[in-house]
Amino acid sequence: MSGVHAPRRKAVVVGFGKMGQLHLSTLTAMSSIDVIGIVDVDSTRRSLVERAGLAFAERIRDLPTSADIAIVATPPETHRDVVVPLLETGVHCLVEKPLALKLDDIEAMSAAATASGAMLAVGQTERFNVNIEQCARMLENGPGTVTASRISPLMPGSTRPDVIADLLIHDLDWIVMVEGHTECQVQVLEAKAQDGIIVRLRCRLDYGRRQYDLEACHAGSRRSRTVDVAAPGREPKRFDLTALPREPGADPLSRQAQSFLDLCEGKAASIAVARDAHRVFCLSERIRGLCAIPALAAED
Question: What pTM was estimated for this model as a whole?
Answer without folding.
Answer: 0.92
